Amino acid sequence: MSAPRRLWAILVARNKEFVRDRATLAWNLVFPFLVVFGFAYLFTVDEQNVFKVAVLGELEGGFRETEHIQFVPVGDRDVALAKLSRHQFDMLVEAGAPPRYWINSSSPQGYLVERILWGATAGPRPVKGTVEGREIRYVDWLLPGLLGMNMMFSCLFGVGYVIVRYRKNGVLRRFKATPVTAFEFLTAQVGSRMLLVLLVCMIIYFGSYALIGFQAVGSHVAVLTVFAVGATSLISLGLLVASRTASEELAGGLLNLITWPMMLMSEVWFSLEGSSEWVRRVALLFPLSHMTTAARAILNDGATLVDVAPNLAALTVMTGVFGAIGAWLFRWE
């Protein structure tokens, strides 16, 4: 057989293999539509808002009808004031008689939206209050999310995809013939990936701290603890995906199905403050959401491990659920 014919035979065989893998074929057709749907409907807004104003109570009047201001309902004044001090809100308005408002004394946006409030208010001006606080740079807010995202890809693909390749290449079949148990094999995979992930995380974290002046308010030990618990949860999720999957293409599709929504809805790049309630509820189902939220609370706000205990508890529960189901479904072949 000539070289061109051998090349053609291999090309045809590989195409037939791909087409006959119905799950992979379906995924390659469906996934682009899911991405388009996500960007088109979940994160697209018709309004181009310039300011973000927190509203406590039922605010009425001309100011509430002002265009290009995003009004975000809040239920706790102290929490809203804390966000205002970090420049996450431009103003906090509390309905009442008389109404009250707060701005950050160092925020230019607060100064401008205050003038808009005065112009839109008939009668006496609302009672003014001020808060102070340093502005969190975008890089300070972004770094915890980027570290979490990097860990997510490393944990899911570094464990899930590798085990599937082992199964496809017959490596797991050889392990089955040895005294090694499934528990020992999976524990070794978790331990190995955990060491690598935390080592890379520490290099990036302390490198950023030294090179770009990353401002960490909380404890380094506390945030590394959060990343360790979060990595365990993500590794367990990767093991669950790889527990029975035999196709590398299908494994890649499933892992992308998990990672893309997590990356978009876990506040890695932008805050979900002011988004739909159901979007924020769905985001709580992802390990990356809890890890990012806890890490930001420690690094940006100086929270302790006690303060982020609910997030750590959620990650621990997810680890147990993913690990138990993955171990139960795991097959060597």
Describe this structure in words.
With 333 residues, the chain is an alpha/beta fold. The chain folds into two domains: 51-131, no CATH class; 138-329, no CATH class. The chain is 64% helix and 8% strand. The chain is built from twelve helices and five strands. A five-stranded mixed β-sheet has the order 2-1-3-4-5, sandwiched between helices. Strand 3 and strand 4 form a beta hairpin. Helix 5 runs antiparallel to helix 7 (182-211) and helix 7 crosses helix 8 (220-242). The chain is elongated. The model has no long low-confidence stretch (mean pLDDT 77).
The portion of residues assigned to helices is 55-70%
- Which ranges are low-confidence, i.e. pLDDT below 50, for 5 or more consecutive residues? none
SSE topology string: HHEEHEEHEHHHHHHHH
- Overall spatial form: elongated
Percentage beta strand: 5-15%
Question: Which secondary structure elements does this structure contain, and how are they paired or packed?
Answer:
Layout: H1 3-20, H2 22-42, E1 51-56, E2 69-74, H3 77-85, E3 91-94, E4 100-104, H4 108-120, E5 127-131, H5 138-169, H6 171-176, H7 182-211, H8 220-242, H9 248-265, H10 277-283, H11 287-301, H12 309-329
Parallel strand pairs: 1-2, 1-3, 4-5
Antiparallel strand pairs: 3-4
Summarize the entry for a quick read:
The chain has 333 residues and is of the alpha/beta class. It is 64% helix and 8% strand.
Structure keywords:
single chain, 333 residues, alpha/beta, 2 domains, 12 helices, 64% helix
